[in-house]
Write a structure and sequence with these properties.
alpha+beta, seven-stranded mixed β-sheet, 24 strands, 15% strand, elongated
Length: 889
């Protein structure tokens, strides 16, 4: 291969040399003809030759013009510019490595963050025309996710106009069991027969549901996910029309969902089955309101969300007519784009991360532009020679752009490696709940973005240095002090400081917000408390009695564990909300008239067993806790939180009162208040303590949820004096002894609470990292421009000192220039930071967007670091030897 390359280079050299010889012969021929014409006109031969050369315009210039007319000359120019640039980089390796390191950080960080936020902010949903898919229905204070029920669903489906397709699913995926050989717990969901066609999804194998399969008594069929097909059946085509057992029932697999398929609310799903619709029964179910379902639709072309909302308003008001007037004001129409529904909690976080890393990239580009401007100052004489030899302004611009392009693409390659490492860190630090975080990676789309960023960096940085043109005076050996170069670099540094101010202010605001959030008092003690979440399968626990026996038996086993002080069972845990609740104006107190409707407040509820308050160390401020006698009693005891008791009984006489939790549900029993518990955080760490009531889990018909959901999920809570590292595996062992194949999710209460602050923690850490990186580059830029100015004005400083200027005056001269840059950057940055922080007000907790302490800290930090970066160049300036400067002059 090397010998072939050598032959090619020799052949190319011979061809080029022959072309140059032909060109020289042609130029000499034209020059001789012009000389002969002047001689024929009577000029002496010597003068004729001179006049011919003058008229010809210069041999070298003419030779260059002829070269530029050759085909493919741009390839030669590009090759020449690249060789010239690479030689320059090799001569100054420190400069080259500095720029590459800066580009690696800037482009790499931008690539990593873009790969995270791309799916959140920019990438289309994996559906046909996903930008036209909406979630629609009703929302109210007890159910913030849109839904429709019974008559309302059928009325909307048959009479709506803004949608070209209308479909629904069940209210959410549930656990189900694959009960064939090697049983497995899966996630199952039910969808209408037109669900896939509404979303434009085509099975990768097999077919969609048929209309008759969604009817009552129709064939039992299912579609399975690609992941389930891969992990369980190794992508075997034999899965089609194969019968599998789901919850003990035979189900025929008719198709496989695409690999990229996702449910509209991003739930994990392994099996989807037809949502069987019995309209006659549905009209009568649930007191005439029917079965709730999630509704999704595809907008007609040209229809906006606002127009769809206005066209649905008559149907919405018609659906409200059967609902009591007191409740109507709490129900609202909802039409939202599916992307907004999926990303509502993380979209703002995505924009914060994206613009933070863009700010870092801008700082990096400004730093590189400053370095290139400084480098151009050392090459002015070289560039002036090239101009004198005929190089045009465009030629010099192309050379500068070629150099910046080479640096940018080299930085892009190293930046991709840096992005891969940074992505691993981001994924490891990211809390659960950020959509698509586990799918972030360097695919073709992200690499294309990286190339685009590299091009923009190259154009931005190369153009700044290319705009500075050399002067002819340099050819006479005269030195030049360019005010324009100094001015450009000073403004670049001011811009870096401004961007750093924005990043620092946002990072400090988010950090203070996170600290306030994490330091919240939850109203309970989470130390030495371990939880075990268990979801039971339909096959092994088909009845209520079997479910109760499992949880009660496991609770008894855990009570005898090492150092166990208390054990309880619940359906949910704070600081998250409860599993249900009631509108406070629907609660009825015996002996009182019903409350005036329309307060809009909600009381959350929790099903608990005796020992719950002891495990979490929640004080009972009045009355008593539930006990084992209550479990077998026919009474209906109730415990209220302090906030709910104060609302219902402002005079403080809640104990012994009889309460009906709502006046709508049929056969809702009267319950007796036996205790008042202290308030706890039950609406997340950032929310206020909601009023709450606690119902007793019992082994008969009113125990837990009347719908039977109690049978699926329960949480055992254990307080022990033994270390968590000991008690957690012991709990897992006890569960395995009772049900070896049953999945169990074990976590400490401290971990559960900490997860609620995961997203703010992630935001503050990432933005803080970018702020530190941006500040470091800005400080380097400030130091670089001052060192350049001191070196450029060394003779001037020496002359000033020789004429009597003191070191303090020289120090003020240098420091004054630095302070001007810092102040300009601070002023611009503070204005931008105030605007940005206002947009982030919804992400802040107990700290205002215009918090004075934050901005004073930012100013103090920037000034301190800026003055530190100024000190070394200023110190060099103060030690200039006047005698050396005078000798140079």
């Amino acid at each position: 291969m090397s010998r072939l390359a050598g032959w090619w280079l020799r052949l190319k050299h011979l061809v080029l040399r022959r072309e140059e010889q032909d060109l020289d012969e042609e130029l000499v021929f034209h020059l001789d003809r012009m000389t002969e014409e002047y001689i024929a006109s009577g000029m002496p031969p010597a003068e004729a030759r001179r006049q011919a050369k003058v008229a010809f315009g210069g041999i070298e210039k003419s030779r260059q013009q002829c070269r530029e007319t050759r085909p493919g000359v741009w390839i030669d120019r590009l090759t020449q510019d690249m060789r010239y640039a690479l030689r320059g980089f090799r001569r100054n390796p420190l400069f080259t490595l500095t720029i590459l390191a800066t580009l690696t950080i800037g482009i790499g960080a931008t690539t990593a963050v873009f790969s995270v936020v791309d799916r959140i902010l920019f990438r289309p949903l994996p559906y046909v025309h996903g930008d036209r898919i909406v979630s629609t229905g009703m929302v109210h204070s007890l159910e913030t996710q849109a839904f429709l029920m019974g008559n309302a669903f059928y009325e909307w489906r048959d009479h709506q106009k803004p949608f070209e397709a209308f479909t629904s699913t069940s209210t959410g995926a549930r656990e189900c069991d694959l009960t064939e050989r090697n049983p497995l717990q899966l996630h199952c969901d039910a969808v209408e027969g037109n669900f896939l066609s509404t979303f434009g999804v085509v099975p990768v194998a097999g077919r969609d549901f048929l209309p008759e399969e969604a009817r009552l008594g129709g064939p039992q069929v299912a579609l399975i996910s690609y992941r389930f097909w891969l992990t369980r059946y190794n992508l075997s085509p034999a899965i089609l029309n194969k019968t599998i057992e789901v919850d003990g029932n035979p189900v025929r697999v008719v198709g496989v969902l695409p690999k990229e398929f996702e449910m509209p609310r991003l739930e994990d799903v392994d099996v989807i089955r037809p949502l069987v619709i019995d309209e006659v029964a549905d009209h009568k179910a649930n007191g005439g309101y029917g079965t709730p379902r999630r509704v999704f639709a595809r907008l007609r072309p040209g229809i906006t969300v606002e127009r769809a909302r206005s066209e649905l308003a008559p149907l919405f008001h018609s659906a409200l007519e059967p609902i009591p007037v007191s409740i109507r004001k709490d129900i609202h129409l909802s039409v939202r784009l599916l992307r907004d529904v999926q990303m509502q909690n993380v979209r703002l976080m995505g924009w914060v991360l994206f613009w933070s890393v863009i700010a870092v990239l801008m700082i990096a580009c400004a730093n590189i532009a400053g370095l290139l401007v400084a480098r151009s100052a050392t090459r002015q004489r070289e560039l002036a020679v090239r101009v004198a030899l005929g190089a045009s302004r465009g030629r010099l611009f192309r050379q500068a752009l070629t150099e910046s392009l080479l640096l940018s693409f080299a930085g892009a390659m190293t930046g991709c490696l840096f992005a891969m490492g940074l992505l691993r860190v981001l994924i490891a630090l990211a809390p659960p709940g950020i959509p698509y975080m586990d799918q972030a990676g360097l695919d073709l789309r992200v690499i294309g973005f990286t190339i685009l960023v590299s091009l923009l960096c190259a154009v931005a940085t190369g153009s700044v240095s290319a705009l500075i043109q050399p002067h002819a005076e340099l050819l006479a050996g005269r030195t030049e002090t360019s005010v324009s170069r100094a001015f450009i670099r000073q403004w670049l540094v001011a811009g870096q400081i401004a961007a750093s101010v924005v990043l620092l202010a946002i990072a400090i605001l988010l950090g203070r917000s996170f600290r306030n959030l994490e330091s919240q008092q939850t109203g309970m003690q989470t130390e030495n408390v371990v939880t075990a979440s268990i979801t039971l399968g339909q096959r092994d626990y088909p009845t209520r009695e079997r479910g109760f026996q499992f949880f009660d038996g496991l609770k008894t086993r855990l009570a005898f564990g090492p150092g166990v002080n208390a054990v309880a069972i619940t359906d949910s845990l704070p600081p998250a909300g409860g599993s249900g609740g009631s509108r406070m104006d629907e609660i009825v107190v015996a002996g009182r008239p019903p409350m005036v409707k329309g307060t809009g407040k909600v009381a959350t509820s929790r099903w608990i067993s005796p020992g719950y308050f002891e495990v979490l160390n929640i004080p009972i401020v009045r009355g008593r806790d539930f006990n084992e006698e209550d479990v077998t009693s026919s009474d209906h005891p109730l415990i209220l939180s302090h906030a709910l008791a104060a609302f219902l009984f402002p005079n403080g006489n809640a104990l012994g009162q009889r309460i009906k939790l709502d006046d709508i549900t049929p056969n809702n029993p009267w319950r007796t208040v036996v205790g008042i518990a202290a308030d706890v955080k039950n609406d997340g760490l950032a929310g206020e303590e909601k009023p709450e009531y606690y119902k007793l889990r019992r082994n008969h018909s009113d125990g837990w949820d009347a719908s039977g959901f109690w049978l699926r999920t329960g949480i055992l809570v254990v307080r022990s004096s033994a270390p968590n590292a000991v008690i957690a595996p012991w709990i897992r062992t006890q569960v395995a002894e009772v049900a070896p194949a049953l999945p169990v999710d074990i976590a400490t209460m401290e971990t559960r609470v900490s997860k609620l602050a995961g997203q703010p923690r992630f935001q503050s850490m990432v933005v803080g990292f970018f702020a530190v990186a941006g500040l470091a580059m800005a400080v380097i830029g400030l130091y670089g421009v001052l060192a350049f100015l001191v070196a450029q004005r060394e003779r001037e400083i020496g002359v000033r000192m020789a004429l009597g200027a003191s070191r303090q005056e020289i120090l003020r001269l240098v420091m004054g220039r630095s302070l001007r840059m810092i102040v300009c950057g601070l002023v611009v940055g503070l204005v931008l930071a105030l605007m940005a922080s206002r947009a982030l007000s919804h992400m802040l907790f107990h700290v205002g967007p215009w918090d004075p302490a934050t901005y004073l800290t930012t100013i103090a930090l920037l000034v301190a670091v800026g003055l530190l970066a100024t000190w070394l160049p200023a110190r060099v300036a103060c030690h200039v030897d006047p005698a050396v400067a005078l000798r140079a002059e």
